[in-house]
Specification:
- The chain has one domain.
- It contains seven helices and six strands.
- The chain is globular, with a radius of gyration of 16 Å.
- The longest helix is centred in the middle third of the chain and has 20 residues.
- α1 runs antiparallel to α2 and α2 packs across α3.
- About 4% of the residues have low confidence.
- Strands 3, 4, 5 and 6 form a four-stranded mixed sheet that branches. It has a two-stranded antiparallel ribbon with strand order 1-2.
- Helix content is 49%, strand content 17%.
- With 186 residues, the chain is an alpha+beta fold.
- The two termini are 31 Å apart.
Length: 186
């Protein structure tokens, strides 16, 4: 039933232009759907926050910002327990508005970062222990560039985008968005 809800919501939303006033709520809805489908409902669960256990609320917060932050489409910000999505990016010196496909795949991308960061073990953090390529030197320039985008991350990302392809085969734009997101430094 959750898969059907995701597919219906996605097909409806890609047929219309979503006003910014609705976008925060809409992305929160997608976050809940993606969380139930791929993250066991843990990221949107209500309870004590990771970084500040005295604050209660959703484990991972979401903020949608209507402006470009350079070339970043989104970011997992562990210090705030927050995912930030941008509606615009700067590409070749011009501001480009992200479409719904880009927003959904970017949200999934950042949710993977949040999940791995919060629920992986190790004292050195998920960047080194879980997400970086096996045998990569932490001081290596390539390791720094790909921080958080190692084999565990990409397996998870390929699983999610593979499900998107399976569930919505007619949506070439969603597949293109997943490919663009994979090539970007999110």
């Amino acid at each position: 039933m959750k898969i059907v809800s995701f597919i219906r919501q996605y097909k409806n939303d890609t047929q219309r232009r979503v006003p910014m006033l609705e976008l925060q709520d809409l992305m929160a809805l997608y976050m809940g759907l993606l969380d139930e489908l791929f993250f066991f409902g843990l990221l949107t669960k209500q309870g004590r926050r990771c970084r500040n256990p005295f604050r209660k609320g959703q484990l991972v917060q979401l903020q949608v910002i209507e402006e470009a932050d350079g070339v970043r489409w989104g970011a997992w910000e562990p210090a705030q327990d927050q995912i930030t999505l941008h509606t615009e990016v700067i590409d070749d010196g011009r501001i480009v508005e992200l479409n719904m496909n880009d927003m959904v795949t970017t949200l999934a991308h950042e949710m993977i970062h949040a999940y791995l960061h919060i629920f992986s073990s190790g004292t050195r953090g998920y960047d080194v222990d879980v997400a970086l390529a096996v045998g990569a030197d932490d001081d290596d320039t390539e390791s720094q560039r790909t921080r958080g985008h190692g084999p565990v991350f990409w397996e998870f990302y390929q699983h999610i985008t593979g499900k998107f392809t399976l569930w919505i085969p007619e949506s070439q734009e969603l597949h293109d968005g997943a490919g663009r997101a994979e090539r970007q430094e999110l």
